[in-house]
Amino acid sequence: MDLKIITPEFSIESREVAKMVGKRHSNLVRDIDIYIEYLLNSELSSAKYFVESSYKDKSGKTNKCYLITKMGCEMIANKLTGQKGVVFTASYVDKFNKMERKIEKPKFEIPQTFSEALRLAADAIDENRRLKPAADYTYKILANKGLETVSVIAKNYGMSSIKFNKLLHDLGIQFKQGGVWYLYAKYQDKGYTHTEPFEYPDTNGNKKLNNTMKWTQKGQKFLYDFLKAKGILPIIEMKVTQ
């Protein structure tokens, strides 16, 4: 994969793109969410176009945004017509051409002293430690093709299943009915969960059936991205940020 596709140095932040196209940032983020959903359903990689990120506003609140690649800008430009489309296309092409020229310049400076070499090595180790937990957790999600119970996911966040379920309810993701958790309508039919029956004995020892909701690989990735945008990280990542 071309690293320029996913690095911040070779992308434009969605807030800047929103200004360029004269659109509210929240509306642009909503449109990108739809584009990504279409790409996921077609099994195409959305990372070639949009990479989810975040920023803090003046009040310190963490908000969702996207890093948009050149291909992502092309997708947005295709939705525009007339002068607005022409001006935006010219603007983002100019920006990416400047980025390419800047990236082509050598960034690495050979250390001149032993202490500089040690500092460079230490910085590289720190950066690797910073990035590795998030990569490991995402890999763990993607490597698990099966269904996962909420208790296992909750444990990754250092919570009980009761507390985690309540959190997802408070965030408007799920609701409880008849003792079973279900996703709200906006998250249904997206392949995030699977409800299956399980057998249990009642107080008299009679066999009973009830349903339980489990999370798919796609659903686990959704939870990770959703919670991360809210500043809620799995334990493995919290240890690094603390």
TrEMBL record:
Residues 127-228 form the Antirepressor protein C-terminal domain. Pfam families: ANT (PF03374), Phage_pRha (PF09669). This is Phage regulatory protein/antirepressor Ant. It comes from the Bacteria. One of its GO terms (molecular function) is DNA binding. InterPro entries: Ant_C, Phage_regulatory_Rha.
